Recover the amino acids of this structure.
């Protein structure tokens, strides 16, 4: 039973354009959401987070949007850069960071 | 200095063997985790330790046992390895009270032959 879903296994975007990565969840108890970025042969690294009391969080080129009623969040990267090419994992926690549930990841390729 | 380090990075071993993966964090975090990334690339939590107490134990076989000699270390011992144990195992740590993200190690690719 996948509590966190990322339905697009891969995404290709031209450099300079916007990348939008989507994530859906089923557990209404989730109250803290994170995005991780993972390069090959490395561990996931934290990118940006959002708590359930907000609907948007922005950090430089990265913005996460949360729609609680739809149980959906998205990560926007603008402008996309070739160095953004990686696998992006959506993660959620029902107890403020104590137990993260991860989605299967979306592989983003930013084409020069 | 690496915040969360795990060794070895690669481990190839035969079925039936017993092996350990070590993990250390120098962030002063109070909680450490082990995750398994399966063939479908899902990252699934196996264990977490908070102040030397096991607080989460997902339905993993009892051949897997976490050992925490101190707050900065959480090692993973695996007995009687099976082919299906082949995966990438990630160690992570976080400071739960500060509501922060988890920091991950680089992963250990375990191959059971």
């Amino acid at each position: 039973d996948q509590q966190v879903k990322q339905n697009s296994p891969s995404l290709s975007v031209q450099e300079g354009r916007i990348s939008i990565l989507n994530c859906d969840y089923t557990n209404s108890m989730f109250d803290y959401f994170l995005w991780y970025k993972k390069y090959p042969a490395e561990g996931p690294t934290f990118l940006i987070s959002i708590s359930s009391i907000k609907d948007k969080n922005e950090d430089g080129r990265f913005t996460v949007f949360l729609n609680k009623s739809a149980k959906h969040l998205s990560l926007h990267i603008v402008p996309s850069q070739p160095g953004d090419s990686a696998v992006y994992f959506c993660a959620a926690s029902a107890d403020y960071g104590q137990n993260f549930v991860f989605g299967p990841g979306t592989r983003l390729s930013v084409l020069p | 200095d690496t915040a969360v380090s795990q060794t070895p990075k690669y481990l190839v071993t035969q079925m039936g063997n017993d092996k350990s993966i070590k993990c250390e964090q120098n962030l002063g975090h109070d909680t450490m985790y082990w995750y398994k990334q399966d063939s479908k690339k899902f990252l699934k939590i196996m264990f977490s330790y908070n102040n030397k107490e096991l607080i989460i134990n997902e339905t993993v076989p009892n051949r897997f046992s976490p050992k925490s000699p101190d707050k900065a270390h959480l090692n993973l011992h695996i007995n009687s390895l099976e082919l299906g144990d082949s995966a990438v195992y990630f160690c992570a740590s976080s400071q739960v009270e500060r509501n922060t993200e988890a920091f991950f190690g680089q992963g250990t690719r375990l191959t059971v032959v």
